[in-house]
Amino acid sequence: MSTPITHASFTLSRTLNAPPSRVFEAFSDYASKKKWFGGPPEWNQGESSLDFREGGSETDVGGPVGGFVSTMHAAYYDIVENERIVYTYEMLLDGERTSVSLCTVELEADGGGTLLTLTEQGAYFTGADEMAGRKEGTEGLLDALKAFVEGD
Known about the structure:
By secondary structure, this protein is of the alpha+beta class. It has three helices and seven strands. A seven-stranded antiparallel β-sheet has the order 1-7-6-5-4-3-2, covered by helices on one side.
């Protein structure tokens, strides 16, 4: 019998010392996104694409040399420039789907910076450990985003 689906959600926030337009560009511009979004530097980078528009999609494939292959396929549903991005994505590990999620990124001006709030609602097919790992991985990505938009 397969592992039961774990339904869970989490919300993460970051205060970024950059205006919403800079943060939005970090998500919407392919060259910018490649600088902060992905696995560790020692990972192999496979297929990668970004069609950032409502109805567009994104793919990112990579993994450690000689190890597993992680694949992310996303579809964009609602984009309000400098304010909001809503998308779904599935994660696969060695070709096996491990989760499907709805993700909302909200950007709010906060003085000269941005309050970013990310909410993920997911169906995790490999149990609660998958959700905990996803939250931890997303926190790492938001830290990388912060460093990128703040110029570190």
